[in-house]
Structure formats: structure tokens, C-alpha cells
Amino acid sequence: MLHRDMIRSIRACKTAAEERAVVRRECAAIRAAISEGDQDYRHRNMAKLMFIHMLGYPTHFGQMECLKLIAAAGFPEKRIGYLGLMLLLDERQEVLMLVTNSLKQDLNHSNQFIVGLALCALGNICSAEMARDLASEVERLLQNRDPNTKKKAALCCIRIVRKVPDLAENFMGSAVSLLKEKHHGVLISAVQLCTELCKASNEALEYLRKNCLEGLLRILKDVSNSSYAPEYDIAGITDPFLHIRVLKLMRTLAQGDADCSEYINDILAQVASKTESNKNAGNAILYECVETIMSIEATSGLRVLAINILGRFLSNRDNNIRYVALNMLMKAIAMDAQAVQRHRVTILECVKDADVSIRKRALELLYLLVNDANVKSLTKELVDYLEVSDQDFKEDLTAKICSIVEKFSQDKLWYLDQMFRVLSLAGNYVKDDVWHALIVLMSNASELQGYSVRSLYKALQVCGEQESLVRVAVWCIGEYGEMLVNNINMLDMEEPITVTESDAVDVVELSLKRYSADVTTRAMCLVSLLKLSSRFPPTSERIKEIVAQNKGNTVLELQQRSIEFSSIIQRHQSIKSSLLERMPVLDEANYFVKRAASTQATISSVKPTAGASGDPLKLPNGLAKPPPAPLADLLDLSSDDAPVTTSTPAAAPNDFLQDLLGIGLVDSSPAGGAPSTSTDILMDLLSIGSSPVQNGSPTSNFNPPSKAETKPAPVMPQVVDLLDGLSSSASLPDENAAYPIITAFQSATLKITFSFKKQPGKPQETAINASFTNLTTTTFTDFIFQAAVPKFIQLHLDPASSSTLPASGNGSVTQSLSVTNNQHGQKPLAMRIRMSYKVNGEDRLEQGQISNFPAGL
């Protein structure tokens, strides 16, 4: 079957099975012809075999026929043989070693066409061994008179240099001499060879810097100034491919070399000025010229010229040209940001482009252009565009705007205004860490809290469908609702608004109902309503009804909150005001350090703790602020912010727990005293988190505590098991043993003692009688004692005998506690306590931690 007939038969097949049958039949016929040694149709059979190979069928049985055809004397046979060699074999085939001798003979053949066949084959499948064997023949052909042979030899040299970089020095002189040729095919091959030599060897790079720059300048001038040549002309540009290759080689040679850069500055300026930009071929040359200018040590004027060319590209209708211009401008910012700034308006227009790839790249470039001088104008433009931008683009645009506002804001009021507007326009796209940072900032900006809650209230009336806006607004209304209703802290620019207590509750209730599917938002709404019940007592009954509606909610989190909050509103009026007081000022510096660490950003190793030395941390809002004094939360069992007398900076044996658990384990031994020998059980994963001072110090409103009057019972050293608290081999004390009375807490103002009693047969249960004594000369009123324990302990508090603590120790108040240690014998008791009371109508708060319980409780 003839070749054409076979192709027609295969194309006529309607199924894959028919095609396979035809191929099998033809392969069988070819095998038979090979076995018979048919000389007349050998090249036709190989042509068929190549077509079958391109269809994906195995043709390994024809490899040796390729070698036989190559060894034949005639040109037609060699042509098919070399073509089959390039298609059916690759450099990994062992049979390729057999063709090396034939290649060497053909490279020395008198027929230039046969030489060309050998060079093409060698340039496609050359292995390292073949490169070493035939490099001298290829090098000799670089001096051949025929330009086509020179061109193919140069391309073959590129393959040899890639396979064996050590051979680069053999071709350096020949490559430079080829740059003097007139034939453009030879020139472009020579330029490509020089580029490959520069990559392969530093010696070649230095040699070519000294010997080929002049030739490259001549080529570029001749091509730029040449008259119309139809054989090289593309859209009115003479040989743009040679232009581009020469510019790339110039970039390689001049990069990092001031002398070479200076030498080519003039020709680059000439190419950049004379090349027309109304055709794609001209734009390609201009782009390479700009990239070369940006890569070398060019003069500032030349760089400005290059950036202006990119600015013209941004006005082009072709999206591809605009995209590459934006990419190049992003690199140019590091070299000359001022020149790029001149095209800011054009770049801003690209942000509003219909093409999404142009929009995203322009937005990234514009983000790099923002500085302190233009941040307000650019932010305004971006926020205005945010209102009309596509939904698909809002997420990227919102993220960039938020980042710009946080990074460059020097004014808290401006920061708040921009964030409120972003929340109103695209609150559904604002990430959680952004609105968390906004809440932290508002907590610290006491003078702007009234303005913030009023602005958010008005925004919520208009844009209540934006999720992040709702969360921030309900949090603010819950914290600063009285500022909203009473127009407290009004700014000069504000106009008073009339909001009643009922209106404030209405807007939170509406948010609670609107976001019925969002657990986080509904949970925040419930917390806000609970706080408003304390801020606005007349609305308590209505709030109680709203909260109670979620008692049967299928979401456990909301159900639990609803039941607990209802209980607080109904039954705990005495502690509701203190429990629902305004949140303490959030630690702004610490928050941003943790946020940066969570995103794996590079942060300072100095922790922003109170009293730390060093420069203040620069916050994203631009204002340096020392962190506020810590205020412990009684129910926060994961950290201990209570002040301690000393802190050991040296690394302790258990310091790895600090990294593992993120807690502050400090040495609780008094200054100058011997360190405690007992192992701190509070290092347990479920315990309070850090070892307290034996007698907890009060808040900063009081003087430091005096020395303890009674010492705790000594605790024997025990081994900590990270998986199960204390070692299970610890001996259990007699449950009928008498336990000493301990001083659980003592400060300059208050002393607390604990006495213990156990019931026979119930070693886990302990009855504690707490006695409170006032050490000052002023009576304490509204005295409340609170306690918190780890999760493995159950605690029950009975009412105190009185809420008034007589002065000067004239009488005491008692209160009974019962604790059940579910891990008795494994983990001792641990407890955090907080006492609140009033002195002459002024609220006071003291807190501490008890870890000196007798062993065996």
C-alpha cells in the first residue's frame, strides 16, 4: 500500500478498533519488508512508520532501518533516515551510539545538503558523549563559506554547549567572528550562540564583553538605519527578531558592568526614540529595549525615557501590551519610583479596566505606588470605585484598600472614616483580622468612641446587609450605647442625632433576626443585648424576651448563650453591673504583634510589654502607644495577667512549655529568696496557666503587699508528666488527716484564710470555709468574692455571711465553698480569686491565685 493510501485508510476509519486493525496490518507489512531486505521501498516504509509513530503506536522495530538509511549513499535515503532518527529516537537510546560514525562522515561530506542534514540531526538529539566526539567537526563548519551551513552549525553549537558547558571555550572566537557576517540568518544564530556561551561560562562572558560589544552596536545601527528590505521586513520594521536577540545579548553583557552599560546607553536611546510604536513588531522591540535599560546601569534620563514608553503602552488598546507594561512598571518602581508616579492617573484608569487580569495587575502596581503624600487621594479614588466595581473584583480591591489604610494611616479619625466606608460598601468581603483590628483601635481611641458608635449606627441603618459592618456596629453599640443615646464626645464636624434607648435595642434586634444563619453575628448580637440591659435598665424586660427566643435554638452555642444571659438578667442583678461593665482597653500593640506572627510576617523580637526597653512599636494606624496596664479576667484560665513581684529572665527547665502553650510561666519566689522546689502543677494544659505569687498582689491602685504572715505547708517535690499532670506514683495522703488553716490571699488591704474539712468516704470532695478580714481603717461595702478553677474541678459557692466588711479587722465575713477534685491524687487543687468592693463609693478590685493548698485535697 502506498503512503497516501495508508493515510486515507486510517482517516476513513470510524472507530478506534478499525484504526488499530489498519495500523497492525501496515506494521506487519513493514516488518515483512524489513526482513526481506527490500532496498527499493525502504525509505517509503520508513515514511509510513513515522506517520504511525505520530499516531502514538510503537515503532521501535524500525530504529535499525533508520541507521541503514543514514548509512546509504543517496540524499533521499539519508533525508528519510535522519528524519526518522529525530522522530523515533532520542538521546537516551543506546542505539544512538551506532550513528556517531555516520554523523562524523556526513559532517565532512562534500554535499552541503547532506552536511545540513547531519547538523540538524545533531542539533536535535545530541547527547553529551556525541557532543564531545563531534565538537571539532562542528567548530570547523562555523568557518564554512555557505551561510546556511554556518547558521546550522551555530545552532548545533548551542546544543553542544548546553550538554557540555566545558566546551564553551572552543566556540568563543568563532562566535565573535560570525557577528561580522551580513546574512541575517547567520547573525541571529551567532547572537543566540553568544547568549548561550555567556550563560555557560563566566570566562566566555568576560571574553564576549571585550570582543563583541562593538559588533553588536554595528548590527543594531545597521538594522535600525537600513532601508526597506523585503526579505526581512515585518510591518515596516526591518528584522525585529534580530533587533530583539541583539538587545537581549546586550542586556546579558552589560548587566552588572558599568563600563558596558555606559557604552551601550547611546544606542539604546536611539532605538527607544526611533522605533515606531504603532505596530506590534515595534512594540516588541521597544519592550526589549525598556527591559534592557531597566536591567543595566543606565543613566537616570534613559530610565525616565523607558518608563515613559511604558506609560504609552498603558494607553494602547491591546490588553497584552498593557499587561506587560504593568509588569515592567512593577519592576521599575524599585529603581525610579518618582518617574512611575507620573503615570499614576493612567494606572488608576487601568484599575477600572474591563479585563480582570489588567485590573488585578494595575491594583498591585497602584498599591506599590502609595506613600504618605498620596495615600488620601488614592484611597478616595479606590473607595469610590469600590462602590461600582464588579462583585468578582471587590474582594481583591477591599483587601488592598484595608491594607493601605492600615499601613499609611497617621490619623485615627481618617482611618476610622475609611474603614467605616469600606465596611458599608463591601463589608461582606472584609476579612476577620481587619475588623478585629478596627475594634482594637476603637477600644484604644477613647476620644473617638462616641463618634465611632454614631457613625456605625447610621451606616447600619443604610447598609445592614454587610456582615462585617453588622458585627462591628453591634459590638460598638453594646460597649458604647450610652454615648450613642446621649451624644457623648461629639466632634466639631458632627451633627447631633436623636437615638433613644429603644432605637439602639431595635437595631441590634433587627441584626439578630436578619442574620439568622450566621452564628457569629447572632452570638455578638446576644452579647450586645446583654450589655444594653445593663446600660439601659428600662429595656431589660424587652431584652430578656428577645434573648429568650433563642433558648430552643438548634445551634448549641446560641442556645447556651441565651440560657445563661437570661439567667444573668433575671437572677443576678447584684453582679450584673460589674459583670457587664465596659471592656478594658485592649492591648493594641500586643494584638498587632500576634496578628503579624499569625501571618508569618517579620516582627521585632522585643515583646511590647509594659516597661520594656527599646523603641515603641509602630502600629498600623501610625501612632505609637504604650500598652495599657493589664486587667485580669477572672474566667480567663489560659493566661495569668496578675502582677508578680519578680520575673526570672533566665531560661528555666520548663521554658519549652511557654512556647508550647503560649503562657507566661514566671518564678514566684520572692526577691532574694530561695526558689521553690515544688513542681508547678499549673503548667497542666487544662490548668490556670502560670504560677502566681503566694499572696496575690492587688491592682495598681494599692501599695505593694506586705510580707506573708503565715507560710504555706511545704509541698514535696513531684515529677510532672506532660500527659497526665503529676506522676501516678505519688503517694495518697490519709483522707482522715487534719488540714492546716492557710492564708490564701493577703494584701495591704485584705486578708483571706481558708480552713478545710473532708467527709469520710469522699476523698474527692472538700468543704472550704473562707474568712475575709479588712486590714484598713475604712469599711468595705458591696463586697463580692468570686473564684474560678480548672476544668477537672467542680466548684460551688454559697452566699457570703455579709456584703459589708468591717474596718480594722473588727469582725470578718465568712463564705462556704465546696470543691470536687475529679483527678484526686493526680492533680492538687488550684484556684483564681477576685474580690470586688467599694470604698467610700469608689469601686475597687483585687485578684490573686492560690497554689498553696495542702497536699491531698
From TrEMBL:
CC per GO annotation: AP-1 adaptor complex
Domain GAE: start-end pairs: 737-854
Main location: membrane
InterPro entries named among the record's database cross-references: Adaptor_Complx_Large_Subunit, AP1_complex_gsu, ARM-like, ARM-type_fold, Clathrin/coatomer_adapt-like_N, Clathrin_a/b/g-adaptin_app_Ig, Clathrin_app_Ig-like_sf, GAE_dom
Cellular compartment(s): Cytoplasmic vesicle, Clathrin-coated vesicle membrane; Golgi apparatus
SUPFAM superfamilies: ARM repeat, Clathrin adaptor appendage domain
Biased composition (Low complexity): 631-651
Region (Disordered), start-end ranges: 606-651, 804-825
Family: Belongs to the adaptor complexes large subunit family.
Protein name: AP-1 complex subunit gamma
Organism, scientific name: Eleusine coracana subsp. coracana
Lineage: Eukaryota, Viridiplantae, Streptophyta, Embryophyta, Tracheophyta
Gene that specifies this protein: ga18060
